[in-house]
């Protein structure tokens, strides 16, 4: 199986971490009698030869040896090698087809593996038949034969998924595969196999689904759970592959079955909500835990009335299983004010478990615990007393201020403690900015005007030599402006007009009634000479000046089309607020709306001020309000602030539409 391995010039080949000289050792270790040695070798190959979907010349050189290894029936743990081969051949990020062609060249190996004595090998090989063989009729015949002969439930599920893949890959030959899926979606087959077939039918042939697929799926899920053995989770090796496996759901097959159905239902939010209702009320806590994570996917990606689902998430908080409770808390914390239907359950957990008020990772500072964080983010004032206790303690979580800011005026009783902590920040410390940021966010949200001296101390007292003033200044200026304290800070703000914070300082001075002759030249300079962030801020400040900034109109009108969409939108908003002419503004908004979803909320706010003049863009706003998916669900990195940002966009769009129609 290693014939020719020493004839390959591995030193001249590369993998993700450099020279491929270590690859022959990994290949030989995959055939070792030692379990740990095999796991470590597979770990190394995943990390170096198939790194984040990329393949290398050494990866291609390995494929023949990997194919030879999986064909040796006497070797253990070959299922993981088959999975690696399938990944190399199907999920490569490379633009060319070299990886796929290398695996396809040995596709006949998978025909034999489909009937291998090891069920893990059979399971991994089911999809490989569809991916790498080139004869549709033969593939379907092989799948049919294996379905008839197979007795292992997990392999049967993999074969069912392979049928769905076959339909998508070979639609002209789909009828036979759809017939098999329809057959296996009905009695007398086991609940899990019927669920798998339902999910694949929903993906590839929804017309063949039963009349009520969601109630059917919920019933099958509960039948499956009632019969599933409560076996302990296998102990995974301390390797990369082992860690990935530990992160998988405790019932991975169940999660995949329901996730497939959710994927197939797509934008049918009402049906998906009903399916989640069945999952989140299951007698089996494992089913409910899977349901929590699928609820997270729906809430992050789709709009609608999710109050019922949120209440069901709250119902998981009194579960005895830490994994289920922690999953629900994590999802609720993302929702911010949308978590309000679960606020009673969150408050009950916060009251019952003070030990969960904070969380400390090993060797790290304490952070605010999930239940209290979720309650505060929901805006519920019942979070204030426990936050007050933490704030009065010797080791208040550093992030407490950021979460307290969600409570706004409800957190006013904490204002004295916030001022006290601001006064204690050592200005000469390199950590001053990190300590100040959450506290500044909190005093701004609370609206504590008595905190102006403390904020001014941060702005004027941080020594320039440590860069601390630069790190603190931007947020401190904004906080002073929010607290109507800019007038007290005018001398310090004027000193900042020649720094990187010039635009923010100029805006604050304008709020403090500084003369336009002082403010306008600074903003014009930043608009034409600053970097993108400074240009955007300067444009926003010019818009605040309104008609008194008419001298900026030529520069705003000359904004290059090469500017990023967010800068163009900021400039267009300023044009409208200064001149009141919609003609040069609306085309910018129309283009940016499609180009960059991040611009939609500021555009909607500006359209609100335009009233009927914004009517030519009414169709964009109306389409946004009718779209089932959140505006950045496919923009990458959607999470954290994604849900509240999207809800803010919807509120802005509704208000803009109302103003257009007045």
Structural write-up:
This protein has 662 residues and is mostly helical. It has a domain at 582-662. It has 36 helices and 4 strands. It has helices at 23-29, 35-49, 57-70, 78-90, 98-104, 108-113, 119-132, 136-149, 153-169, 174-184, 191-204, 213-227, 240-247, 252-265, 269-280, 285-301, 307-315, 322-335, 343-352, 370-377, 384-392, 400-404, 415-424, 432-446, 452-461, 468-482, 490-495, 502-511, 516-529, 532-545, 553-557, 565-579, 586-595, 600-610, 618-626, 642-660, and strands spanning 14-15, 18-19, 358-359, 367-368. The strands form 2 sheets. A two-stranded antiparallel sheet has the order 1-2. β1 (14-15) and β2 (18-19) form a beta hairpin. The chain is elongated and about 85 Å long. The termini are far apart. 46% of the residues are buried. Mean pLDDT is 91; it is low at 243-248 and 635-639.
């Amino acid at each position: 199986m290693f014939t020719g391995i020493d004839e390959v010039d591995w030193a001249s080949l590369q993998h993700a971490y450099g020279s491929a000289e270590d690859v022959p050792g990994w290949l030989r270790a995959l055939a070792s009698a030692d379990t740990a040695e095999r796991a470590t070798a597979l770990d190394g190959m995943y990390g170096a030869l198939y790194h984040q979907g990329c393949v290398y010349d050494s990866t291609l050189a390995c494929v023949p040896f990997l194919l030879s290894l999986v064909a040796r029936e006497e070797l253990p743990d070959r299922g993981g090698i088959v999975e690696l081969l399938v990944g190399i051949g199907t999920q490569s990020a490379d633009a060319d087809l070299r990886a796929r062609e290398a695996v396809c060249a040995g596709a006949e190996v998978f025909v034999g593996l489909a009937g291998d004595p090891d069920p893990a090998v059979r399971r991994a090989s089911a999809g490989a038949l569809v991916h790498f063989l080139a004869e549709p009729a033969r593939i379907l015949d092989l799948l049919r034969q294996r379905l008839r002969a197979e007795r292992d439930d997990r392999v049967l599920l993999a074969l069912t998924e392979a049928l769905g893949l076959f339909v998508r890959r070979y639609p002209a030959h789909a009828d036979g595969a759809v017939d098999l899926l329809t057959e296996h979606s009905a009695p007398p087959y086991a609940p899990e196999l019927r669920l798998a077939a339902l999910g694949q039918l929903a993906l590839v042939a929804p017309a063949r689904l039963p009349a009520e697929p969601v109630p059917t799926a919920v019933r099958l899920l509960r039948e499956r759970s009632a019969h599933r053995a409560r076996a302990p989770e296998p102990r995974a090796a301390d390797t990369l592959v082992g860690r990935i496996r530990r992160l998988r759901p405790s019932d991975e097959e169940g999660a995949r079955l329901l996730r497939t159905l959710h994927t197939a239902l797509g934008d049918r939010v009402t049906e998906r909500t009903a399916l989640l209702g069945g999952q989140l009320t299951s007698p089996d806590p494992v089913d409910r835990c899977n349901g929590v994570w699928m609820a997270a996917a729906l809430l992050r990606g789709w709009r609608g009335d999710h109050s019922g689902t949120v209440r069901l998430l709250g119902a998981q908080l009194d579960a005895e299983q830490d994994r289920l409770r922690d999953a629900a808390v994590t999802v609720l914390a993302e929702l911010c004010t949308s978590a309000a239907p679960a606020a009673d359950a969150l408050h009950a957990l916060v009251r019952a478990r003070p030990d969960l008020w904070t969380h400390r990772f090993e060797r790290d500072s304490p952070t605010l615990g999930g239940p209290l964080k979720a309650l505060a983010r929901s805006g519920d004032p019942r979070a204030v007393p426990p936050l007050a206790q933490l704030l009065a303690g010797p080791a208040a979580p550093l992030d407490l201020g950021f979460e307290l800011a969600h409570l706004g005026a409800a957190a006013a009783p904490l204002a004295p403690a916030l001022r006290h902590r601001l006064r204690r920040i050592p200005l000469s410390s390199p950590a001053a900015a990190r300590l100040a940021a959450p506290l500044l966010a909190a005093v701004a949200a609370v609206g504590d005007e008595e905190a102006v001296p403390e904020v001014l101390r941060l702005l004027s007292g941080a020594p320039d030599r440590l860069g601390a003033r630069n790190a603190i200044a931007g947020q401190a200026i904004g906080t002073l402006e929010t607290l109507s304290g800019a007038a007290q800070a005018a001398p310090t703000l004027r000193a900042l007009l020649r720094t990187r914070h010039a635009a923010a300082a100029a805006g604050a001075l304008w709020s403090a009634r500084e003369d336009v002759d002082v403010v306008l030249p600074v903003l014009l300079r930043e608009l034409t000479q600053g970097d993108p962030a400074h240009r955007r801020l300067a444009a926003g400040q010019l818009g605040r000046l309104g008609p008194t900034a008419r001298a900026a109109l030529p520069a705003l009108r000359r904004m290059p089309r090469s500017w990023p969409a967010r800068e163009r939108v900021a400039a267009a908003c300023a044009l409208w607020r200064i001149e009141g002419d919609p003609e040069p503004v609306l085309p910018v908004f129309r283009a940016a709306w499609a180009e960059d979803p991040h611009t939609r909320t500021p555009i909607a706010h500006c359209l609100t001020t335009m009233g009927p003049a914004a009517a030519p863009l009414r169709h964009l706003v109306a389409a946004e309000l009718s779209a089932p998916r959140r505006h950045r669900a496919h923009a990458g990195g959607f999470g954290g602030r994604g849900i509240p940002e999207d809800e803010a966009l919807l509120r802005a769009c509704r208000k803009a539409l109302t103003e257009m129609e007045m």
